[in-house]
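Just scan my protein:

——
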Amino acid sequence: MALHMKWSDRSKQLLPTGEQARGTVLEFLRHRYVREKQHAMRYRQHAERIDPQFRDTLIRMAAEEEQHAASIGARIRDLGEKLPDVIPIHVAREDNSWSYLRTDLDEEQRCRGELSDLPAVSGDFPEIVDLLQRMDTDSQSHRAKLREMLERSVPQSVGPP
């Protein structure tokens, strides 16, 4: 049952230091690793289906998400664990570029709070907190880019074939 709780709900519990804190950090890192890999997949799939004016930006954002996953993966391995399996995602075909961009922004916003969910163990894992802060900065940039692209896109437009 606990596996079905949202990460943010679990992070609100009081966390002791030591092995239990390590377990909590590993669980969080595994979750973030999968999310970052899936974000990269989503951006690449959308880049293939979206108006050409937005492709390069989405491809760059996918590369940044892959770098986040690689950094998280390194931390997981540093803690002596193996990387989690990532289930490939396949995004639904949308009617237009605006719809793709809107779903990307919604997904970035859903993940927004997760990046600051580890303050209780920050003293035990300062390098992980630093990594999450850098990722949060990139996430803010991604949200801004997506908003800008949404403003340049027309909701009623017909998407690419």
Notes: Helices lie at 7-11, 19-49, 52-78, 97-112, 126-152. Residues 19-152 form a domain with the Ferritin fold (CATH 1.20.1260.10).
